[in-house]
Amino acid sequence: MSEYNFDYLDELEAEAIHILREVAGQFEKPALLFSGGKDSITLVRLAEKAFRPGKFPFPLVHIDTGHNFEETIQYRDEMVARIGEKLIIGSVQQSIDEGKVIEQTGKSASRNALQTVTLLDTILEHKFDACIGGARRDEEKARAKERIFSVRDEFGQWDPKRQRPELWNIYNGKIHKGENVRVFPISNWTELDVWNYIRRENIALPSIYFAHQRDCITRNGQLMAASPFLNMDDEDVVVSKKVRFRTVGDMSCTAAVESDADLIDDIIQEISESKISERGARMDDKVSEAAMEDRKKGGYF
Amino acid sequence: MNILKFFTAGSVDDGKSTLIGRLLYDTDSILADQLEALQSSNRKNDDGTIDLAILTDGLRAEREQGITIDVAYKYFQTEKRKFIIADTPGHIQYTRNMVTGASTANLAIILIDARNGVVEQTIRHSYLVSLLGIKHIVVCVNKMDMMDYSETVFNAIKEKYKALAQNLDLKDVTYIPVSALKGDNIVQPSAQMDWYDGESLLHFLEKVDTDLQDKTAQARMPVQWVIRPQTDELHDYRGYAGRVLSGTFKLNDKVTVLPAGTSSTISKIEFFESELDQALAGQSVTIHLEDNIDISRGDTLVNSSALPIESKLIEADLCWMDTRALDPSIMYLIQHNSKTTKCKISEILYKVDINTLDKHAADDFKLNDIGRVIVKTADALAFDLYGENRANGSAILIDSRTNLTVGALMFRATVE
After folding, report:
1. For chain B, what is the radius of gyration of the CA atoms?
2. Under 8 Å CB-to-CB from A87, ≥6 apart: which residues?
3. Which pLDDT score, from 0 to 100, does residue B73 have?
4. Is the predicted pLDDT of residue A73 greater than 50, yes or no?
5. DSSP per position, A22-56
6. CATH says B2-207 is which class?
7. Beta bridge partners of A130
8. Does A11 touch chain B (CB under 8 A)?
9. CATH of segment(s) B309-414
10. One GO molecular function term (chain B) (predicted)?
């Protein structure tokens, strides 16, 4: 840069910190949605930069599908212990047990869609008025249209046709009782930006992001981790492959990619050359061209 | 590597979405699965090639109608720079969305259809660019392939636009003849237009200056949050957290806290676990002062040697963004950085016909109307004029009945 040394990661970081502090300043009961994935791990790092040496002005909230990668849960618990912040867990299993949602059946059954109900219940129970999430606009074309402060009605719905104008760096967090705002501080980051930031900041990640040997089956042309959460039958052939995961979601809907990248530099190299987008490894987006838009309207992250 | 944020003004008919699609496509920014989704889509060009415009239309209604309704943000990068594109709609009924996309941009691409030249829409878009104070303008004369890549056509449009630019006081304008459909002068230089000796659009975007710092701007930092750990070992810790809007704060600088007017000296500038000698425009930091004075969110730290304007009466340009018209009899909220206070629009000075640029008297303000007003605020604001300091010279209006953002304000003058 012409006059001072403030590179693109510094600029993205400063913007995200500004957004996090606006959340702290404008809301009564915010929360940070923590999935154990790299994007929400990045958010935790940014929150440390925004609020230390003070405490976070919000708890972390994990919507737990019960179909987790073990490594993610281990990472989550170690991280929470290290940073000394509060963790609230919303359990999809509990929503099922209480009869609020019904477990899907069939071969492609997943708890991904059920999370929305648990999320909305958790928001209601704790009266959260803002939920910070790690969604990025480069992930998907409906997300490309979403504001940084994105208002949801009391049913958790996003109305893409009635979004508030969002001007300069001024964020309007005014809402009516019952509504809440989803806040996306890393909206302007790409997948590569997140990885470059993780490398620069030397942030630890759950081990499943790095190449490892794992039993997999092939579903709809994609590699899925063999697990008790996947409805498998005789047609499914289990093979051991060297894989890594590009996103961390429910085990039943997150596909692996074959990879030898076991160091962060290799991953960055691989992503730079990759020809498949990150959400391409998400079965939940494959339903239709408007899959994400429809889920967001219904209250999804 | 740094970031260039730009927005594109034009309509789908001018090939705006195709131009963005072409930039992404030719810089290899479209991934295989996205391309596959494109190929399986029903929309194709007449010659059967992929319609690149679909890349930017994100919402179902937009795909159905083949138009852009809301701002879509797109990202790509080259070895030289990261780019953020705000793809904004061009139709007059979506003016508010264009203003939204333009508000954070430091470059505007004005798209002109070579077959039609400078039209009403060009005037409207250029006016918005001047209103929002966008620093750089690139006029892309598109569809040159349909005009036999004619230099005469290009030059005639350029001359016509120059007159408009002068009228609107647009200083930094660059002209590029392109064909988004065929890819001429978007990423690769065109083989069809030897007479053009300038750069391709991408090469220009890669090297245009992106200095965020307003040259004349003084040090300003709105306080967003006060960090007070209140633990035993950090009992007296009091840090003022915020993002520097403009200028530079240095250690030991004399600063004034507004609106209180109290002064102190910067004793420490922190960024997470490190201490800094100075904080520059754009940086999010935590500032400590020598004296223990009462400061909270909504206050602004400024350099004591260059104070901003403080006033409850402000002359401002207003862009109205709500379907419910302005009601001068009610109170609105005005949000200026971290400060929110009540306000009224006490006078409408004039409205601008954004197709002809004529000013006329008015007593109402409806969706997409733009004009000059006088705002009367409950608490005084500490601001600068938009022309000198974009970040400290802008604000939004909120309707407290609906909580919607209903207006964009650009501060232009003080009122006697």
Report:
1. 24
2. A34, A59, A60, A61, A62, A76, A80
3. 87
4. yes
5. HHHHH-SSEEEE--SSHHHHHHHHHHHHHHTTS--
6. alpha beta
7. A30, A181
8. yes
9. 2.40.30.10
10. GTP binding
The pLDDT score that the predictor gives to residue A186 is 97
**CA–CA min distance B116, chain A (Å):** 30
Residue found under tokens 């391409």? A280
A17: chain B residues, CB-CB within 8 Å:
243, 284
> What single-letter DSSP state applies at residue B135?
S
Neighbour order of strands in the sheet with B136-142: B72-77, B81-87, B2-9, B107-113, B136-142, B172-177
Residue in this structure with the two tokens 């076991």, named with its chain if needed: A262
Q: Do B33 and A53 touch (CB under 8 A)?
A: no
**CA–CA gap between residue A252 and residue A275 (Å, rounded):** 24
Is A165–B408 a contact, with Cβ atoms under 8 angstroms apart?
yes
Q: Which residue of B has its CA nearest to A193?
A: B82
Q: Which residue has the higher pLDDT, B346 or B49?
A: B346
Instruction: Please state the rounded mean pLDDT for residues B255-261.
Output: 95
The ipTM value here is: 0.92
- B67 pLDDT more than 60: no
Mean pLDDT of B315-343: 96
Domain boundaries, chain B: 2-207, 220-303, 309-414
A155 touches chain B (CB under 8 A): no
Question: Is B278 an interface residue toward A (CB < 8 Å)?
Answer: no
Among A28, A85, A168, A195, the residue to mutate for chain B (most B Cβ within 10 A): A168
Task: Give Cβ neighbours of residue B340 (< 8 Å, ≥ 6 apart).
Answer: B298, B333, B334, B398
Cα–Cα dist B65/B87, whole Å: 16
Residue of A nearest to B296 (CA): A25
Give pLDDT, residue A104. Answer: 78
Q: Inter-chain contact A25–B297, Cβ cutoff 8 Å?
A: yes
Residue A2's pLDDT band, with cuts at 50, 70 and 90, is very low
What number is the average pLDDT over the span B77-82? Answer: 89
Q: Please report which helix (H) or strand (E) contains residue B162, including its range.
A: helix B151-167
Q: How wide is the angle at C-alpha A175 spanned by C-alphas A130 and A161, nearest 5°?
A: 95
How far CA A154 is from CA of A175, A179, B184, in Å, comes to: 10, 5, 50
Using a CB–CB cutoff of 8 Å, tell me whether B283 touches chain A. Answer: yes
**Could you say which of 3.40.190.170, 3.40.50.620, 2.40.30.10, 2.30.30.40 is the CATH number of the domain covering B220-303?**
2.40.30.10
pLDDT exceeds 70 at position A4: no
Contact between A11 and B3 using a beta-carbon 8 Å cutoff: yes
Look at the block and give the residue holding tokens 């890669």.
B206
Give the phi and the psi of residue B261 in degrees, each rounded to 5: 90, 5
CATH no. of A8-193+290-297: 3.40.50.620
Question: For strand A87-91 and strand A60-64, is the pairing parallel, antiparallel, or unpaired?
Answer: parallel
Query: Is the distance from CB of B263 to CB of B194 less than 8 angstroms?
Result: no
The predicted structure's pLDDT at residue B88: 81
For the cut 80, the answer to whether the pLDDT of residue A265 exceeds it is yes
Task: Determine what percent of chain A is predicted with pLDDT higher than 90.
Answer: 43
Least confident of A146-150, A158-162, B76-80, B183-187: A158-162
Nearest to B369 by CA among B338, B327, B325, B308: B325
